[in-house]
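To: structure desk
From: M.T.
Subject: fold request, one chain
Message: Could you run this one when you get a chance? Sequence is below, nothing fancy, just the single chain.
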Amino acid sequence: MPTKTQRLFLDRPRCEDADGLHQICSDPRVWSHFPSLRHGDIEQTQVMVSRFISAWDRAELGPWVVKNPSDQSIIGYGGCSIKDDIFWNLGYRFAFDAQGQGFATELSREAVRQAKLSRPELPLVAYLLEHNVASARVAEKVGLTLLHRGIDAGNPDSKAIRLVYADRALTEEQLAHIML
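Reply: Done. Structure tokens follow.
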């Protein structure tokens, strides 16, 4: 069932969303904080959409496709998904032209609210790169606290620093799993 916030229409992903999402995922301006994750072909985006659909099938909550309510155009994606039954992961990505308007905070507030209703026993986590200051601000606005700062293992940029924000203290096992 779709969810509506003040300015966004949040819809459960469908295979036919891949083309609209690929426009976002292939845009280098959207990946300035992590260029190696930019999608080079539609197949990468189709795999991502399949993962989103699977997340919804497993938990009845996962990343939404974010649409403009006035014309139903896709302007982003994001939400919370359960990672290995250990924690909720909060993440999002918006089209370049949709950035800087508070949409990430609006989406994240709704995602956090629904995740806490669904599985409140799981910690809520956002992990991001240190130079992504806007995402760090969003994490803080939705009540997450910086718990960890360290090298981002596996990142092509060997100097990249990973930040882990969470809504509560994490066990060593949870933190180790997040850092994989």
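Reply (cont.): The first helix runs from residue 18 to 25. Let me know if you need anything else for the meeting.
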